[in-house]
Amino acid sequence: MKTTKAAKSTPVKPVAKKAAKKAAQKATAASGKATGVAKKATATIKKAAAASKKAAPAKTAASKKAAPAKTAASKKAAPAKTVAKKAAAAQAAPKKAIVESHAALVRRARRINRELAEVYPYAHPELDFENPFQLVIATVLSAQTTDLRVNQTTPGLFAKYPTPEDLAAANPEEVEEILRPTGFFRAKTKSVIGLSKALAEDFGGEVPGRLEDLVKLPGVGRKTAFVVLGNAFGRPGITVDTHFGRLVRRWQWTDETDPDKVEAAVGALFPKSEWTMLSHHVIFHGRRICHARKPACGACPIAPLCPAYGEGETDPEKARKLLKYEKGGFPGQRLNPPQSYLDAGGIPAPPLGAG
Q1: In this predicted structure, what is the pLDDT of residue 202?
Q2: What b/e string do you get for 100-134 counting C-beta neighbours within 10 Å, with b at 16 or more?
């Protein structure tokens, strides 16, 4: 018996519907699982947040407790730190520089010299001497000591050895004993005896009046030579000692430190005829007012012209207490100073061993 085509065919729609229904059920189940995982995750996050809130007050309390201690420590450390910062800033701060043309520098430098000439009209070399020989010996001895100590020592030296020939023939040990108070007495003994021999043998016992001859003598450099030329022979010269170099740098006449370069730089600012007295004015000022460690700025007559004003004491009363020699009412460097110095109120220094 033949079967019809319709009877043999499987119905498609009911099968497809069943498959779709099963897929939908599986998808729903998967979605439900995902939702459950999400809910669990959300719950975990909420628990963590709650724990965090509980921990926060404890942390805040601990911070509050720690804060006062930290603040107190900071307050204690702050003053020392501030002082250190201020000191470092003071050291690092550049000095006030004057921007001026060469012509303006010349005018200011010459005005300073004129002002100092009015303050120290009696300025003079502060070594006692009666002739060029005594001056050159005294200047050599003044290295690494004060003019006062030299002036207290040379009377005994020149009383025993009045001429170059006498000192050239001296017993070194005896000379050393005389020069002991000046310091470095062995080296100085060798220099003055050698210098005296050179004068006796090469210059007939006379101190030469030329720079090129003076600097050939043992122990004599340009500084010593200019002291001798300017004060024993009346020939202009600039004496660059420690006081002179310090002041001209403070006044910004030059920033050179080598004495020969300082001499050249300052010499270019002044007529040659003024060099010797300029040296005396500057050195006098350096010894009396513009000291190395604590300048008496408040008592300085050239303060308005000085770019370094304020490096020292600016209070007038306190500054006056820093003044030395005749400005402070104390004895000067010389045992036998010029009459003009005495007329200005200067006091002679005492001899060695006095008082």
Answers
A1: 96
A2: eeeeebeebbeebbebbeebbebbbbbbbbeebbb
| Alpha helices (H) along the chain | 5-8, 12-92, 102-119, 132-141, 147-160, 164-168, 172-179, 185-202, 211-214, 222-232, 242-250, 259-267, 275-288, 316-320, 339-343
Q: What is the SS3 assignment for 331?
A: strand
- pLDDT-flagged residues of the chain (< 70): 1-97, 355
pLDDT value of residue 352? 87
- Do 137 and 151 form a contact (C-beta atoms < 8 A)? no
Q: Look up residue 220 and give its DSSP letter.
A: -
> How do residues 39-98 score in pLDDT, each as one tens digit?
554 454 455 445 444 444 444 444 444 444 444 444 444 444 444 444 444 433 445 667
Q: What is the CA radius of gyration of the chain?
A: 46
As a whole number of angstroms, the distance between CA 164 and CA 136 comes to 11
The 10s digit of each residue's pLDDT in 303-312 is: 999 999 999 9
Which letter does DSSP use for residue 181 in this model? G
Q: Which positions are catalytic?
A: 223, 241
Tell me the one-letter amino acid at 174: E
The pLDDT score that the predictor gives to residue 61 is 44
pLDDT value at residue 26: 53
Q: Based on the number of CB atoms within 10 Å of its own CB, is 78 exposed (0-12), middle (13-18) or buried (19 or more)? A: exposed
* Predicted TM-score of the model (pTM): 0.73
End-to-end CA distance of the chain: 165
Distance CA 114, CA 278 (A): 9
- For the record, the structure tokens of 209 come out as 């009046």
Contact 278, 124 (CB under 8 A): no
User: Which residues are 331's β-sheet partners?
Assistant: 347
Token couple for 132: 């060029």
